[in-house]
Each structure stands twice: as structure tokens, then as C-alpha cells.
């Protein structure tokens, strides 16, 4: 690693960034919203493929806490500040989950600044109704494989106030449902929570509310049909978010390749590192 740096945005927000080495990097955009970069495993996995840039989004993780604004437009501008900081004319982008929505939004706003887009475990361009109810049902079914986990998660969810340790425990239980390997799911979920930073719930609510209001429009579909950027979609077939939600995005994009890793969940690089690495290497 070259060490962490600070990017200051045009409105004065200070963002934590880290670059893994010299050369044209792959810029990684983490999920959430309201979480932080958890791409240490990806950085190691791609070490002989590409350097990477990691960053914590506005008001999250190691970035300075701020009052927002919590909008996709603002987060797209923040990502562009990261691009300018490293002097990149064009970026290869990889976004995971909410980060997949962010990099797609960036590419739609600035296609001339994107060389390649890797869209990992997103939820497509349709309305939340395409996947939300199935996601909730699949989540509870996964946790119910271990009734003690479901009971403890529900207990913590029902409490009006949690200590920091309890917030971390609740997140680990929630994240354990993201892995197909039920017996071993707690171990990678705990890695996601190490280091632990407080989840920015205000950011999470605002950006999820925005997606519910404005995603799934004919205008978004038409914009994707006109996107002249090569896109790789990477899915874990065992993601608890139904992969059919991404079908409309795949149909809309004119330059798209899709790789579905059959034995992986929401973090496919954890459960199929070889398949994930090969897919990204080929795209780059």
C-alpha cells in the first residue's frame, strides 16, 4: 500500500482514500449505503492483476463525518473528486451492491470518464418491488437455518438502543446471511466488521429512500440503452437478492457481459475467489 490520503471535495468534505500501487488503478466503490470500504480481500486477490484505489464514501468509515447531503448526485461528484485527485482522465470502476448503483450512476453522468465498469451484486434498474420482498424472505430463511442467530438478531433489532458492541454483533448476524456457506458464514461476516465503524444510518435511509422514489423509470432504462461503456456484471447465484432483478439492466446495456458464479452469495470474491478474479481480469 502507498498509505492513506485525504481527498477534499468541492464542498469541503474530507474523504479517506488509499491506493495500492503505481499504474492505472481499478477504483473500488463499496456497498451500503452508510458503510465503509471492505475490499481488503479484493485488493489482495487482484494484486497481480491491477492496482486499486479504495475509499470511504462521504460521512462513512474513515472519512470525515459530515451532514451530507445524502444524494446520488453528491456521491457521483465525490467519486469524480477521487478521480481528479489521482489525475485520472478515465477510470476503470468496480462497484459492489449499493456501490454498483453508484458506479452505474457515475457512468451515466460521465461516460467519457469511464473505461470499464464492473457491476457486482447490484439490484438492477427496476423498482424495489422487483426484489425487496424476495430479499426479506430469503434473508429470514437463511438466518432461520441457525435459529439461535435469528432469535438473537430479532432481539437486538427490537431494542430501542444498542451499545457499540451490540451494534457490531447485530451487523455480523445480518451479514452472515449473505454467504451460501451457512456453517462458516460468521467468520467472513466478522471480517467485514473488522475494523468496525459506526454505520451512518441517516445516509443509509436517505439514499435508499431516493432509490425507491426515482429508480425504475423508463428514462433510466433509456439512458442505460445509450451507455457506450463496456460493462461486466458479476453475480453470485446464491445471493439472497434475486438475480432476476438485474435482467433488465443486462437487456438495456449495449456493451455487456455477465458472469454468474453458481456457488457464491452476495460477496462473490469470498466464496469463489478464482472465478471472481478471472472475471475481473478478463474485463480489464
TrEMBL record:
Keywords, sorted A to Z: Hydrolase
Pfam family, any one: Abhydrolase_1
InterPro entries: AB_hydrolase_1 (IPR000073), AB_hydrolase_fold (IPR029058), AB_hydrolase_sf (IPR050266), Peptidase_S33 (IPR002410)
Protein name per Swiss-Prot or TrEMBL: Proline iminopeptidase
Family: Belongs to the peptidase S33 family.
Domain AB hydrolase-1: 25-272
Domain of life, source organism: Bacteria
Gene3D superfamilies listed in its UniProt record: alpha/beta hydrolase
GO cellular component terms attached to this protein's record: membrane
One MF term in the entry's GO annotations: aminopeptidase activity
One of the GO BP terms on file: proteolysis
Amino acid at each position: 500500500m502507498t498509505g492513506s490520503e485525504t481527498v477534499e471535495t468541492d464542498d469541503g468534505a474530507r474523504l479517506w482514500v488509499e491506493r495500492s500501487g503505481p499504474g492505472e488503478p481499478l477504483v473500488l466503490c463499496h456497498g451500503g449505503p452508510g458503510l465503509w470500504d471492505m475490499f481488503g480481500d479484493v485488493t489482495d486477490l487482484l494484486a497481480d492483476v491491477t492496482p486499486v484505489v479504495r475509499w470511504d464514501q462521504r460521512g462513512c468509515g474513515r472519512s470525515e463525518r459530515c451532514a451530507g447531503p445524502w444524494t446520488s448526485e453528491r456521491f457521483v461528484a465525490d467519486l469524480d473528486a477521487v478521480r481528479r485527485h489521482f489525475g485520472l482522465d478515465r477510470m476503470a470502476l468496480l462497484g459492489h451492491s449499493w456501490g454498483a448503483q453508484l458506479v452505474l450512476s457515475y457512468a451515466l453522468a460521465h461516460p467519457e470518464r469511464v473505461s470499464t465498469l464492473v457491476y457486482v451484486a447490484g439490484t438492477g434498474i427496476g423498482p424495489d418491488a422487483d426484489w425487496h420482498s424476495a430479499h426479506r424472505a430469503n434473508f429470514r430463511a437463511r438466518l432461520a437455518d441457525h435459529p439461535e442467530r435469528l432469535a438473537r438478531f430479532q432481539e437486538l433489532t427490537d431494542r430501542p438502543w444498542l451499545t457499540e458492541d451490540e451494534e457490531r454483533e447485530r451487523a455480523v448476524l445480518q451479514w452472515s446471511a449473505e454467504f451460501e456457506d451457512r456453517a462458516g458464514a460468521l467468520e467472513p461476516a466478522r471480517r467485514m466488521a473488522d475494523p468496525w465503524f459506526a454505520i451512518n444510518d441517516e445516509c443509509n435511509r436517505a439514499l435508499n429512500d431516493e432509490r425507491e422514489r426515482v429508480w425504475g423509470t423508463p428514462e433510466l432504462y433509456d439512458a442505460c440503452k445509450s451507455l457506450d461503456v463496456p460493462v461486466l456484471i458479476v453475480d453470485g447465484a446464491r445471493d439472497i437478492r434475486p438475480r432476476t432483478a438485474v435482467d433488465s439492466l443486462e437487456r438495456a446495456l449495449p456493451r455487456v457481459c455477465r458472469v454468474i458464479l453458481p456457488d457464491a452469495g452476495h460477496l462473490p470474491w469470498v466464496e469463489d475467489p478464482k472465478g471472481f478474479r478471472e472475471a475481473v481480469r478478463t474485463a480489464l
